[in-house]
Amino acid sequence: MQRRFVSIWFCQLLADWQLIRRPELAAVPFVFAAPVHGRMMITAVSALAAAAGIEKGMRAADAKAICAGLEVLNDKPGRCEKLLRALAEWCIRYAPIVAIDEFAKDGLLLEVSGCPHLWGGERAYIKEMVLRLKSKGYTVRLAIADTPGAAWAVARFGKVSPLVASGEQATALLPLVPEALRLEAPILAKLRKLGFYQVKSFMGMPRSVLRRRFGEGFLLRLAQALGTEQETLVPVQVPVDFQERLPCLEPIRTPVAIEMAITRLLENLCTRLKAAGKGLRHGILTGYRLDGQLVQIAIGTNAASHSVSHLLKLFKLKIDHIRPGLGIELFILDVPKVDDVAAAQETMWAVKPGLDDQGIMRLLDRVAVKVGPNVIRRYLPASHYWPERSVQPTFSVTEKPAAAWRLDMPRPTELLPAPVAIEVMALIPDHPPRFFIYKGVRHQVVKADGPERIAREWWLEQGEHRDYYQVEDDQGRRYWLFRSGHYTSEKQFKWFIHGFFA
């Protein structure tokens, strides 16, 4: 597929932004100014101010002398970049890769390969972008070409068609001025001094001559515009490997139509995932509304899946959270996290129990979508003797344990995150307790087993060992208690509760 790029030039970005916020300024010439070396210099000019002869880079005092009634507004550092970033994120609806023009800081560059056909072709594609941006109040010029450099040049300096046919970028560049190549000011001054006022004046000259007179940077810009040198764009949002887009012929508002759109996206996505041997673990559906707002819902799975029916059930549980407003014109389904999907062995006589059962995994996915993924917990054994370190949480159903559960000694069904101090009465200090008080309630011990001594892992930390007892109170409830350290007459020993048996 031939790569195609669109350049969007916001002819008077800050001025348009101000007019959107303050429409009353439409009949007033105004400029933005910022201090430079102690003087207020103009950074942006409105259309009325430009018609009066005011240009960017002039001193604000000189501009006021030229244009009576000129309003000077204070510019803030980074305002233009912030505005461009917001516009770039809005333009992601038209292409997955949108970058800020780092040369002029007044436009965007989009890689649109494979996108224009969704809008009926390149001409309709560009027309749609122009109309939408103008409807928001921005004055723009657009062009499309095989290279970012050629699109940038035609958008700003082109006089004919904004559509540069594939492979025709050299022809489109010939009648343009050298400024169209994004050259630095010293190089442009040299070109004007030598009488080169159009690109065709030096296009056919030997590279060695151009390099000697204008430097390597000049040749790089020329090669980027022609396509003999690749130019890398830095997107404002890095696109994921698995993404599906669905533009809507008419704005969608009903839950039934939203479900149909999700089904279409999942069918295309799962076909790609299956071909790659991957499955969805986390998916984000973004809806672009007519009013410019975004609506999002997300799902997650405990195991990688490329089943359309299963993933659709998860999304259907969240369709009610989508607020379409006046309507959604574009859906984008991103899959930022995928895992490998192992081919399952089909058998007629065996049923895989437990977490290997796909039905169990799909049930867990539906529960997680309803109540939240953090409600479902799974724990695996860890290679530690110290109870607090012997269990590790995991968010994956398919993760395999690195160690086996310890079965030689009883362990409580519920282990407290940290031991809780209790009051204990024991006949002899080294004996199990006769009763203990936990949370203000006295428990009379009728049965006890122990002690089981667990030494502290000295290679990780220093401290006392623990002597654990399994005890049962007069209500039949069983607890895991321990005494910290040895009993001595000089030191007061302490008792703790650490868990509960079923």
From TrEMBL:
CDD domains found in the cross-reference section: PolY_like
Tagged with keyword GTP-binding: no
Name of one Pfam family that matches: IMS
Keywords (A to Z) from UniProt: DNA damage
Residue span, UmuC domain: 10-154
InterPro entries: DNA/RNA_pol_sf, Rev_trsase/Diguanyl_cyclase, SulA_CellDiv_inhibitor, UmuC
GO biological process: DNA repair
Keyword Cell division on entry: no
Gene3D superfamilies: 3.30.70.270, 3.40.1170.60
Signal sequence coordinates: none
Family membership: Belongs to the DNA polymerase type-Y family.
Name of the featured protein: Protein ImuB
